[in-house]
Structure formats: structure tokens, C-alpha cells
Amino acid sequence: MSSVLEKPLVGPTFTTVSGGRKAKNLLATVLVSAAFVVAMIPLVWVIYTVVRRGIDAVTAADWWSHSQRGILPEDFGGGVYHALYGTIVQSLIASVVAVPLGILVAIYLVEYGRGRLAKATTFMVDVLSGIPSIVAALFVFSVWITTLGFEQSAFAVSLALMLLMLPVVIRSAEEMLRLVPDDLREASYALGVSRSTTILKVVLPCAISGIISGILLAVARVAGETAPVLVLVGYTTSINTDVFHNNMASLPLVIYNELTNPTVAGQQRVWGAALTLILLIAVLNVLAAFVARVFAPKTK
Fold it and tell me: How far is CA 144 from CA 140, 158, 169, 204, 292, in A?
């Protein structure tokens, strides 16, 4: 026994990879790379087409600072300032309601949610996340306009966008809160800190970067929704600052409205509005990545 302990068996730590495993690894790498290239082809093609056809419009001096007021369908000129304003305003109003409500629901599900109420809330969030945008628009139309008697407006659009944004905010915030280690909560409780203070001072600061990033991605998601603006508000070529009355333009509405314009000027506005929408969403995605990096917990 002592001889075995004095002379332990020492085998090779690493063994040579067999030829069969190398071949399987090479085949998997080739298949995954090919799938990635195939998936990127339509995306690159769409972006190239939109940029090529819309670059003349977005580089015009008036595109970002003027509306289409007084511009005839066959005339060149004007811009999408009125539609860009409408898209941003409608998304912001939806965010004012959906963001705090979504974060509170996520806190409840992660920190307090137990029993039937939590299961029912999770089920309703799952159902809400699967609702098509046209159904959300028709729901708001039946309740807000048909039942309560309000007129079609930008605020009605914001209500539909709120329904679409809410499950995205809840899910993203819930996932970020679950990533916070329980050791931090237990250490706070051991110091005599209450649960509510622990959530405000410990849990939320640790998860805030991911939560903000999820919020910006949710805003980017609803900014391009078309069904609510088609059902709940009409198009106008002028700027409308009253969100409760009259029509208000948005980028999806400009694209839809100008599609019926067969002139060269109309087609240019279609591709220009599409490129503007892509740029807006790209800016929000870059901003989300920047915020996630800035607000991430510092490890040094």
C-alpha cells in the first residue's frame, strides 16, 4: 500500500484528438458558417436596397426639418419631420405607461410572486406577448373609440403600442432581476435592511443596465409597428402637436400612404421613410448597448 502511495500512477493529461472528432468538428463549423451566411443574405439585401433607394431623400437638406405640407404628390421636396415627430411622441407616451408598470410587475414576479396570483400574472404576460399588433389595435378601437366614444388620435395609437411594449419590458426586466445573485439579497437582509430597501438599493442598481437596455429595445420594437397607426389614426402632411385630436403622421403611415403614389417623388419618399425608420431603430439599438455598458456594475 505504501509503495502505491509513494509511486502514484501518472497518466497523460491530454490525449490526441482523433481524426473522426476533427472531421465532425470541421463539418459542424462548415454547416454553422453556411447557415449564418444564408441567414445574412436577405438582411444584407434589404439593407442595401433601402439604403440605395432612400439615400437621396435622407441626404436632402429639408428631409429632417420640414413636413410635406403644401407639397403636391408629384413634387419633390419637403421631408418627414412631421412623421418622425409623430413616431417619437407616440412611442414616448406608450413608454410613460408601459415602462414603470412593466418594471413593477417584474419586481413582483421575481421578489414577491408566489401562489396563484403570480402564476396568473405570468400566464397573462405570456398571452399578451403573443398577441398580434392588429389584434391590439382592434381591441383599443373597440374599447377606446367604439365603447368610450373618443375619436381616432395619436393617443389611441399609444395605447395599442403600450399593450405591445408591456410584455417586452416585463420579460427583459424579469430576466435581469433574476440574474442578480441571491447572496447580495441575503447579505442585505443580514444587515437588517428591509426587503423594499434591498430591492431599491441593491437589486435594481445591479440590474439597471439590462433593464434600460431592454426598455430601449422595446421602444425600437414598437416604433415600426404599422397596424395600430393604420387602424387608430389618420394621415396628415402637417405637424400635429395635439395627441388627443385630429390626425398625426408617423413613419409607417408615410410609407403606407406614399405607396399609392405612383410618381417618382412618391417612391423616393417611400424609400426615404423606410431608411429613416431603420436609422431610428439602429440609433436606439446602439444607445441600448451604450447604456448597458455605462450602467453595468463595475468590478474594479
Answer: 5, 12, 23, 35, 36
Give the mean model confidence (pLDDT) for residues 81-85: 90
Burial of 145 (0-12, 13-18, 19+ CB in 10 A): middle
pLDDT of residue 24 exceeding 80: yes
Report how far residue 109's alpha carbon sits from residue 115's, in angstroms, rounded to the nearest whole number: 10
Q: Would you say residue 296 has pLDDT above 80?
A: no
Mean per-residue pLDDT, 80-92: 90
pTM of the model: 0.81
Q: Are 278 and 50 in contact (CB under 8 A)?
A: yes
The grid cell for 95 is: 413608454
Q: Is 134 exposed, middle or buried (0-12, 13-18, 19+ CB in 10 A)?
A: middle
CA distance 167 to 162: 9
Given a cut of 80, whether residue 7 has pLDDT beyond it is: no
Residue 226 burial (C-beta neighbours within 10 Å; 0-12, 13-18, 19+): middle
The 3-state secondary structure of 117-160 reads HHHHHHHHHHHHHCCCHHHHHHHHHHHHHHHCCCCCCHHHHHHH
